[in-house]
């Protein structure tokens, strides 16, 4: 069924720190959306999109990141950037090497991080499949 509208639910997007045992750190983005389809314009369905990214440069090298309670602001800035294309076709999180955002005087570029954590499955687009690790 064709999508007519996608809206980001209140309280989203959310960005979080993601770590692995190898101490590699990344960004976990979670966005809940409401999807409206042409066949049932008064009914919406909820979907959760998830993506993981590795930032460059390392945010720990930015003095602002290391100040008390600043880390959530960094991860939420990344999530906002990742979700910026969700409400228009192709209704997906920003693609792998296209995510770029500025935070506290530094420009961050990212790459997609598919093998981030064994229990975590990315879902990059509305109606897309979860991608196995």
TrEMBL record:
* Highest classification ranks of the organism: Bacteria, Bacillati, Actinomycetota, Actinomycetes, Mycobacteriales
Q: What spans are recorded as compositionally biased (Basic and acidic residues)?
A: 39-59
Q: Which domain of life is it from?
A: Bacteria
Protein name per its UniProtKB record: Uncharacterized protein
Give positions of region: Disordered: 36-69, 112-133
Provenance organism: Nocardia jiangxiensis
